[in-house]
Design a protein that fits this description.
This protein is of the alpha+beta class. It has 3 domains: about 55 residues, Arc Repressor Mutant, subunit A (Orthogonal Bundle), CATH 1.10.10; about 80 residues, 2-Layer Sandwich (Alpha-Beta Plaits), CATH 3.30.70; about 55 residues, Roll (Ribosomal Protein L24e, Chain: T), CATH 2.30.170. It is about 35% helix and about 25% strand. Strands 2-3-1-4 form a 4-stranded antiparallel β-sheet. The chain has a two-stranded antiparallel ribbon with strand order 5-6. A two-stranded antiparallel ribbon has the order 7-8. A hairpin with a 6-residue loop joins strand 5 and strand 6. The longest helix has 16 residues. It starts with 5 loop residues before the first helix and ends with a helix. The structure holds zinc ion. The site of zinc ion has 8 residues, from loops.
């Protein structure tokens, strides 16, 4: 496992909430220099900790339909169908259940006509049943890593104590801060509020 220090984790936390956050802003908030932030980000990119900077697009606003595709197939056909589905642009996520009743469950997005046509675009040999359910409401949790509950060593933003796991996470000004206990969180909150009420 790759070791990250507190500054790396802080930088990651900023970039997770906004991948377009400027190095200047991050450097200011982390009390460090822009070249330091840049070299840390470059290192995490090199190590593959950061795979890419992405954007979150609202499919609804673009009239793109989301649907769930469920394919029940004979066990012997699962790997072939999985391969075929993975090659389709509309397939966004794919899960194979490990039940005796093997199913391939996939989240698909695109034009509804194209989604329905998936049934004609894959080889249906040994497929028992195929269903396409259009999504009415989606509740997606963000895909940010749970920094507060990971095994990464963090330093309490208030008392500087090192801690692993079970950190208390709190957002201030839309930025994540980590604390060793709720007391430290409370103290930090007091200090923080005072600091910013002066401005
Ligand atoms: Zn603390």
């Amino acid at each position: 496992m790759i070791e990250l220090d507190n500054l790396d984790v802080k930088i990651l936390a900023y970039l997770q909430s906004n991948s377009r956050e400027s190095f200047q802003e991050i450097a200011k908030c982390c009390l460090t220099s822009i070249p330091t932030v840049k070299s840390r980000v470059d290192r995490m990119l090199e190590l593959g900790v950061i795979r890419k900077f992405t954007i979150d697009i609202d499919n609804n606003k673009l009239g793109i339909t989301e649907a769930i595709l469920i394919v029940n197939a004979k066990p012997g056909a699962v790997s072939r169908i999985t391969q075929e589905l993975r090659g389709l642009e509309e397939v966004k996520e794919l899960y194979v259940t490990s039940d005796s009743d093997t199913a391939i469950v996939s989240r698909v997005a695109g034009d509804m006509r194209r989604i329905l046509a998936i049934q004609e675009r894959i080889n249906l040999t040994d497929v028992n049943n195929i269903r396409i359910l259009s999504v009415k409401n989606a509740f997606t949790k963000d895909s940010t890593i749970p920094l507060a509950s990971s095994s990464i060593t963090l330093t309490c933003s208030y008392c500087d104590k090192k801690m692993t796991g079970d950190a208390v996470k709190k957002k201030f000004d839309d930025k994540d801060y980590f604390f060793c206990c709720t007391t430290c969180q409370g103290e930090f909150e007091k200090k923080y509020t005072k600091l910013f009420s002066k401005v």
